[in-house]
Design goal:
By secondary structure, this protein is an all-alpha fold. Helices cover about 90% and strands about 0% of the residues. α1 runs antiparallel to α3 and α1 runs antiparallel to α4. The two termini are about 25 Å apart.
C-alpha cells in the first residue's frame, strides 16, 4: 500500500514538474519578447526626442535669425526713407527757388527792357550752342534753362517717390512674411515641445515596465533553477524508479502468495 502511494505520488509530482517547467518556459518566452519590444520602443522614443530637440533648436535659431533680419531691414528702410525725405526736400526747395526766379524773369521780360535785350542778343549768334533747351518765344534762353531744370527736378522727385513707394511696399511685405514665418515656427515649436514631453512620458513608462519585466525574468530564472533542483532527479529517473517500485510490489505480492499457500 505504501509503495502504491509512493508510486502514485511520484506520478503526480512528475506531472507537476512538467507543468511548472512548461509554464515557466512559456512565461520566460513571453517576458523576453516583451523586453525586446520595450527595448525597441525606448530606443525609438529616445531617437524621436533627439530629433524633436534638434528641430526645436533649429526653429528657435531660425526665429532669432528672422528677427535680426527684420531689425536690419527696418534700420535700412529708415535710412532709405531719411535719404528719400532729404532728396524730396532738396528738389522741392530747388523747384521753389527756381520758380520764384522764373517768375521774376518772366516779369522782367514782359516789360520793355527785357524785349530790347532780347533783340540785341538775337543779332549775336553764340560761337557754340551749349544746350538745346526750349524757350518760349520772346523769352530769354535762361528762362528755358530754368524751366528745364524745374522739370528735371520734378521728374527726379517723381522717380524718387515711386522708388520709395516700391521700397516701402517691399519692406512691409517682407515684414509680413517674416512675422508669418515666425508665427509658424513658434506654433511648430509648441507642437514639437508637446510631442517631446509626451515622448518623455512614454519613455518613463516604458522604462518602468522594462525594469519590472527584467525583475520578472530574474524571478522566473530563479524559480526555474528551484524547479530543476527539485524535479530533475525524479523526472530523469522516473521510468527507472517506477519500474523498480513496480517490481518490488510484484515481488511482495509473490512472497505473500507463497506464504499464503504454505499455510
Amino acid at each position: 500500500s505504501e509503495l502504491k502511494t509512493q508510486q502514485a505520488e511520484e506520478v503526480k509530482f512528475k506531472a507537476y514538474c512538467n507543468k511548472e517547467l512548461d509554464e515557466n518556459e512559456k512565461s520566460v518566452y513571453d517576458k523576453t519578447e516583451l523586453k525586446k519590444d520595450l527595448d525597441t520602443k525606448i530606443a525609438q522614443l529616445q531617437s524621436l526626442i533627439e530629433h524633436l530637440t534638434q528641430e526645436i533648436a533649429d526653429a528657435s535659431s531660425q526665429i532669432s535669425t528672422t528677427e535680426v533680419e527684420i531689425k536690419t531691414a527696418s534700420q535700412s528702410r529708415e535710412a532709405e526713407n531719411k535719404e528719400f525725405q532729404s532728396v524730396v526736400a532738396d528738389q522741392r526747395a530747388t523747384q521753389a527757388i527756381l520758380s520764384k526766379a522764373l517768375m521774376k524773369l518772366k516779369d522782367f521780360y514782359s516789360k520793355g527792357l527785357g524785349k530790347a535785350l532780347l533783340l540785341q542778343r538775337a543779332s549775336q549768334e553764340p560761337p557754340v550752342k551749349v544746350n538745346d533747351y526750349k524757350s518760349n518765344s520772346g523769352a530769354s534762353p535762361v528762362m528755358g534753362l530754368i524751366e528745364q531744370i524745374i522739370e528735371d527736378s520734378k521728374a527726379l522727385e517723381s522717380e524718387t517717390t515711386a522708388g520709395e513707394t516700391k521700397a516701402q511696399a517691399g519692406y512691409e511685405q517682407f515684414v509680413k512674411d517674416s512675422n508669418g514665418l515666425i508665427k509658424d515656427l513658434q506654433a511648430s515649436i509648441a507642437q514639437k515641445t508637446g510631442a517631446s514631453a509626451a515622448a518623455k512620458g512614454d519613455t518613463a513608462e516604458a522604462s518602468a515596465n522594462l525594469e519590472s519585466t527584467v525583475g520578472e525574468l530574474e524571478s522566473l530564472a530563479s524559480y526555474e533553477a528551484d524547479l530543476h533542483a527539485e524535479c530533475d532527479f525524479v523526472v530523469k529517473n522516473f521510468d527507472v524508479r517506477q519500474k523498480a517500485r513496480l517490481q518490488e510490489m510484484e515481488a511482495i505480492q509473490s512472497a505473500k502468495a507463497i506464504l499464503s499457500g504454505a499455510k
